Every structure is written in C-alpha cells, then in structure tokens.
Amino acid sequence: MKKILTLVFVYVSAISVTLAQQKKQLDLDAVTEAHFLKGIQNLQDLVSIPNDSNDPSQLVPNITWCEENLDGRGWNTKRLETGGFPLLFAEKMVPKAKKTVLFYFHIDGQPVDRKRWEQADPYQPTLKKLNDSGKWEAMPMEVLENSYDPEWRIFARSSSDDKGPFAMFLTAWDAMVEHGKMPNYNVKIILDFEEEIGSPYLPESVVKYKDILAADMMLIMDGPRHLSNEPTLSFGARGISQITLTVFGPRAAQHSGHYGNYAPNPAFRLSQLLASMKDDEGRVIIPGFYDGIQLTDAEKAILDRVPDNEADIKRKLGIGATDKVGGTYQESIQYPSLNIRGMASGWVGDEVRTIVPADATAEIDIRLVPESDPERLFALVRKHIEDHGYHVLDRDPTDAERVKYPKLIKWEGSVSYQAFRTPFDSEPGLWLEKAYMRAFGKEPIKIRISGGSLPIAPFVDALQVPAVTVVTVNSDNNQHGPNENIRLGNYKEGIKTALAILTQEL
Amino acid sequence: MKKILTLVFVYVSAISVTLAQQKKQLDLDAVTEAHFLKGIQNLQDLVSIPNDSNDPSQLVPNITWCEENLDGRGWNTKRLETGGFPLLFAEKMVPKAKKTVLFYFHIDGQPVDRKRWEQADPYQPTLKKLNDSGKWEAMPMEVLENSYDPEWRIFARSSSDDKGPFAMFLTAWDAMVEHGKMPNYNVKIILDFEEEIGSPYLPESVVKYKDILAADMMLIMDGPRHLSNEPTLSFGARGISQITLTVFGPRAAQHSGHYGNYAPNPAFRLSQLLASMKDDEGRVIIPGFYDGIQLTDAEKAILDRVPDNEADIKRKLGIGATDKVGGTYQESIQYPSLNIRGMASGWVGDEVRTIVPADATAEIDIRLVPESDPERLFALVRKHIEDHGYHVLDRDPTDAERVKYPKLIKWEGSVSYQAFRTPFDSEPGLWLEKAYMRAFGKEPIKIRISGGSLPIAPFVDALQVPAVTVVTVNSDNNQHGPNENIRLGNYKEGIKTALAILTQEL
C-alpha cells in the first residue's frame, strides 16, 4: 500500500511540476535571446537552398528540408498532391485542445538576377553592416557568436519572403518545447511552394483538402511590418490578377531607317494604349475601375490611426511625389491597382539595334480589394482596349489577321487570388492582440488591408475561417528584388512574436 | 636591223593585243557567271569571321583578312588610326587616269541574338531554299557546284550588310583583271569597322585624312535594292541620331502590392511621355519637328516614279496600316523619323516580378534628312519633355534630386551622322546610269533619299564630293535582325554591277 501511495505521489507530483511549469509565464525576451543564434542557424540552413518556383527541381530539396525539420520535431507531415508542386501539410494535435489554428508560410522565392546582387551568390546568406560611407559591408557570420547589432542584416533570397518567418516559427517552437510548454490549441501548418508564381493550384487544392485543413482561424506569417517597424498585424490583403499585353508591329523587326515613319511602331502604340489608362497622377481613368469603394469617415479614421510618416516613406522610396489614387498611403491601398510590372520591346543598352521592333509587351498586375471582382475589372480593361481600335486576340495573329486589322493585341489574363479582409474585433483579432501585449507591452499597429497579396482568399472561402497576417520582417527588405535581406532585430522579434502566439491561451 | 624591227613589231603587237583586249566589251553576264562560285567562296570566307563592332577583339581578324585580300591583289593598304578601331584605306593608281573614285564599305555587323537564329551559328554561312511548306531548309554548300537557283539564299550575319557587297567587289575585280582590264580611273577604298555602332570617330577621321581620301566622287556599296528587287541607285541617305531616355521611379524596385497606387510607376510615366510625342497615325506632334520640308509637285513626281507596290510592302511587313507621316512610302522617308527602337522596364515573360520598377528606358533613334538639323530636333524634343514637367538630367539623380523633383528623366543624346542627298544629274549620277544600262539594258530605279543611314555626310562635307549609293542586296535580307541573308540572284547581279562600274569609262 505504501508503495502504491508513493507511486501515486510521484505521479501526481510529476503532473504538478508540468502544470506549474506550464502556468509559469515564460520570460519571452530572455528565452528569445537564448535561442537567437540557433534561430540564425535555422535561417542560414533554409535560405541556402535555391528556391525559384519557376524551376520545380529547385523546390525538391526545399520540401525535403521542411519534412525532415518538422518530422524531427514530432509533427505529422503529409504531402498534399496538387496539379503542380505539392503542398506540405503538418499537424500537432494537443490533448484536450478545443481550438485549431492553421499557420501558412511559403517556401519558394522570386527568381534572382545574380548580376544585380551585391554578393556572389543570393543563396549564400551574407551578414552585412552599414559602414560609415553608407554601403553594406560583409562580415563573417561567426562575429555573431560574440555580439551583434539589431541593425545588421542577413542578405539572401527569401531571407524575409518567406523563409525567414518559417525559420522564426521553428526556432520559437524549439524554445517553447525546451521550456516544457505546448500551445493549448491544435496547430496545423500548410507550406506553399508556388506562392511567387501565383499559387496556381492552391484554390482547387484547398477545396480538395478542406477537411484536413479545417481550423478555427488562420494565421499567415508573411510580409513586412508597418514602415515604422513597430509590431504590426494585418487584417487583410489585396488579391492579385495579371494581364500580359502584346502589341504587334511588323511581323519581323525591321530596319528603322527603311521603315521608320512607315511601319507602325508597336512600342509607341503600346505606350499610347497604356498612357490612355491613367491620368498624370496615377489614377486609373477607365470608367468603373474603382466602383464600389466608398471610404466612410469611420473607415478613414481607422486608416488614419496607422502612424504613417509619408515624408519618410517618400524619402525611403526616393520619390518626389506619389500617385493620387488615395489621399494617404493607407487610403491608396484600399483601391485596386493597375501596375506595369514589366515592359519590353526590341533591345536596350549594349544590345540596342536600330529597328522597328516586331512587338511590344507590357506585364500588368492588378491588385484587388474585396469590392473589385477581377473578372469585372478585366472586362473593363478589355473594353477600353477595344475602344482604342484594337482587335484583341488570345494568341499571336495569323498573316491574314495582320493585314486585316490595323491594330492587333494579344491578351493573356489570369487571376491568382482574390482579396480578403477580417474585422479587427474577430476572434483571432482579439486573441492576437493579447499575445502582442505580452510580447511588446503595447497594442500592435493594425492594418485594415495590406497592399501585397497572399493566397489566402481560397482558404477564407473554402474553410470559412477568419485570417490575420502576422507580419514580422523589415519593410525595406527588398523582397522580390536584388539584395533581399532581413534585419537581425526583426528576426529576433519575429521569434518572440511566434513564441508569444504559441504560448497564448486560446 | 631586222632583229630590231622584229623586236619593235613584237612590242607594238603586244601593245595592240592589250589595247584590243581593253577595247573589246566584256560580256558582263558570261564573265559574272564564270566567277560566281569564286564569289561565293569569297563571301563564305568573309562572313565566317564574327564581327560585332561592340567587341573590338572580333574586328581584328576582319581587318587582317581585308588587308591580306587587298595586298594580295596588288593594292596599297594602310590602316588609318582613329580614336576607335582603325579605318582601312586601300588604293590602286591607274597610269594616266584623270579621275578618282572612292568606294566605301563597312565590314562590321550588328550583334547577334543566337537563340533567335534558325541555324546553329550566325557566323557559319548556311545555304537554304524555301521548301514547299514555306520554311527555309538548309542544304550543303556543295550543291552549288552542280547548279543553283537564284532564289536560294545564304544566311549569315553581314551576308547582306555589308560584307556581301565587299565580297562582290573583290570578285568583280578579279574577273576584270583576269580579262586583262583595268578601270580608266584611280580607285580608292575605305573600309569602316564601326558603322553598326554609329561610326563615332568617322567625322573627325575624314577631316584628318582628307588628303588621302580625296576623290572626284564617292560610291557607297551598302544597302538593299528597291523592294521590287530591280537594279537601283540611291542618291542620298537619311542621317541618324539617338536619344536614350530613362524615367526614374522609386530608387529601388518596390513590391507592387505595397506600393502600387502610391510609388509612381516609371513605365507608365515613360509611356505617357512617349505617347505625347506622336498622334495615333504615327506623326510627330512636337511643334517644329517637320519644319523646312515642303515637297513640291515636281519632287512628288520624282518620288512617284519609284514603282512601289504598297499593298505588297504591307503584306511583306505583315501590317494592316501604315504610319501617315507621308502619303506614300517614298514621301514618308523624306521626313525625319522618331522611332522607339527599344524599350525596357522591370522584367517580362518567365522572369517577370511583381514590382513597381525602379526605372524605364526608351531607346530612340531619329533619322535625319538634309532639312533637319539634329541639334534643332534634340532641342525640340527636350523642350517637349520639360513642358511635360520633367527635370532633365544627363546622369542618374542624386537622393536630393529624387525627393525634390516629382518627375525625373535622364537624357543621353548623340548624333552619329547627318543626311546627304546628291542630284540625279550630277557627274556620278549620269556615269552610273551608263554602267547600269550596260549591265541591265535599262535605267535603274532612282531613289531620292533612302530611309537607312550611312556615315557618308562626313565625306560629303570634308571631301566636297558627290556621293551615290550602289545598292545590290535583296530588301528582305533581315539586316540588323536574326536570320540575315543574301539572295543568290542578288549576289550574282551585285558582282555584275561592280564589274560594270569598274569597266565603265569615266
């Protein structure tokens, strides 16, 4: 009997320790600091794997790394097959949990234009500090073992977008486990490997796997903090659709001496067409483009609470004036955009040739808000093009069409994903605010909708869950461009943010 | 005495044979036919040497080849040093000659975009015939030894522009010499190795070497025949100048989600600026651009004598309508042009990135006529840009300038060469007509000014000589673009043209 009692006592006391440990609030700052260097190692390991989603062969070692790193931490992982590259799903069920939170990250990155990077290899993470002459100067990674400055940065493709946040999450998870803690909710993770090419198979896959993905809310860890670099939550994201327009000139490029003044120049024609779409202050003048968006005074007041310093933004961007779609930065992103992301005709620079080019191409992206259905916008833009005298094709013209129609254009349009917007006072909004209060001792900046796009609308639609974006990285991270980077201070506070969320009772 | 008489007889008789030989008219067709295959070999040898004038190291084997081939034929050659790659000068003095004719050729070529050529190597001349399905089909060069079709073509960079004509000239020279003939005038040759990069040092070099180059007239063997492919002479050429315009957006490319609708898009701005320069029918609407050009009825009648078939031209170019600068093709090239030869911003196609680009560039070429001084046109275009609110720089902006000026543009302008125009009834005009009558039994088509540019105005100005362009190649030779070629029939008639000119008494 005594033996039994002792055993019971030992058992109860073991439970007590665990409960006590769990009850005790973690010192988020101290725990984060203690795990920072391990976090840097996680980041380095992950960004060292090339991840251009235009090249699926590059994605294979990425998904393998993620599987190994989740399996090794005791998660159940599963590849979800899609029409393209698989999604990776992982889950961690917690006994007695009442709620489930689904985290989203993407592991792929934009292509790299190596000659424009100021380091030998965009996939070789490089620690840099800003030197006295304002240049980023490389340092050996080992200096971090002695001390570091939060202003230093690690440069590598996807350091911010979006491998950095996933590395923060893994680091926070390890820190939590090491301190004997677990979330009081079930955790699911979905990793996307095709975000930078518009997640073409995500919408159908979310529907296909909606039982597996089912959750009470979804947190997207992707994107930068507010420009002030203060802790930020973002409650929505613009959607994105794209159109490639190709205006046709002569069938083959022609000598500009022989046919300049005679063969219509497709670059001029494209310029004239594009110019007709916007006024001198960047507002789209295609009728109906902004229909349905009417910011009320109450909404404008919410937007005004975001502490934007527009003079700073302009200085940072190096611009003397802004487009006038909205009265402020926050207002501007409540509207759909019509952006030329790329344009090409003939050759420029060292390769220039004295020709009338054969064609001219504009790559357009249209960012969407909940009020702007992309098919409606496409129809408006298409009608505008037709009203300018163009015969619109979905392929290159035939010889007969070339001679028949004075103005020919090819239209290739597609919708990647719609916009979403979650109310500030939704369940995730209120819960995350508590986690941020614990981590930072103050309310986060709350963004009504962020300008960038996330493939979240399919989740919102299929799973019927509210979604909030937990943004952590520095806004000047050069994401999508050369010299992408993450600021060490943001990386560390990102670990702390993830740790606060994982340990916040739901 | 008898011995002496015999010697005298032998001597006189030797002279008589030579004189008889010289008096006897050559059968131009038969002689050309007999030398055709040697001519093809000359062409192959020359176009096999890569000759992109952006890479001077490629030019060295070209100038060496030309020296060896002229020295070997008994010409005196001399490199004329310039600020860039040397010119090659050659001369052949003829005893008792009263006149001197200077021939101009260029040996360099445009760059090649290998992936757009339908053959492994643009510097590996490839014989092709049009097959039944309308595709150019390669054949071994050896088939020419049995028979050939004038419609077959040899594809290679510079096959038409302008190594082909120099190979014709060398072939005609050899044919003439083999038949014991010589011109009755002194012949000088100047070879340019920087024509495709605008012959930047030619104007100053012609002044520097004007005593060496002195001549009574200048013949430029470069450029295509009239579209009808009938024998053609061209009495002038438009000049050429160029402007590179760079419109600045944000200092670095920005994520189009975060800054679309806010950071002004340089591609849109460039489009708007370019669009403002022309009307919908391709006419420049910058005031004053066409000043000084008033075609009289007499001039229009001369232009109308050129047998253009505009429906054919449009079909050939694959265009449904033409720009309306002139009422006809010939009229259109009596005016300066404003052509966008290249345009670029951000990335397109597989490399597309969802950004607001940092800048947008337009490469413009302005073709000149004698009435349009390029500096005057530059001033008009520049004022037009300033009137659209741009602050114009000749370099990239500083950070302070970026914030100060809402619209910033970089202007890089240069004049390659002016236009020239020689009267039809000038000495070379009348003399060449006789040579063409001998060769073809009919008057050539006479072009008042050709659309393309030749670096001839510096010669006309410095040497005070009339200049005429002897054009021989097929107009659909794809010069400057991929798949440049020469039609065998044109190559052969080009040899005959050169032979007729070399043997035409002056």
TrEMBL record, chains A, B:
<feature type="domain" description="Peptidase M20 dimerisation">
    <location>
        <begin position="236"/>
        <end position="390"/>
    </location>
</feature>
<dbReference type="InterPro" id="IPR051458">
    <property type="entry name" value="Cyt/Met_Dipeptidase"/>
</dbReference>
<keyword id="KW-0645">Protease</keyword>
<dbReference type="Pfam" id="PF01546">
    <property type="entry name" value="Peptidase_M20"/>
</dbReference>
<keyword id="KW-0732">Signal</keyword>
<protein>
    <submittedName>
        <fullName>M20/M25/M40 family metallo-hydrolase</fullName>
    </submittedName>
</protein>
<keyword id="KW-0479">Metal-binding</keyword>
<keyword id="KW-0378">Hydrolase</keyword>
<dbReference type="InterPro" id="IPR011650">
    <property type="entry name" value="Peptidase_M20_dimer"/>
</dbReference>
<dbReference type="Pfam" id="PF07687">
    <property type="entry name" value="M20_dimer"/>
</dbReference>
<dbReference type="InterPro" id="IPR002933">
    <property type="entry name" value="Peptidase_M20"/>
</dbReference>
<feature type="signal peptide">
    <location>
        <begin position="1"/>
        <end position="20"/>
    </location>
</feature>
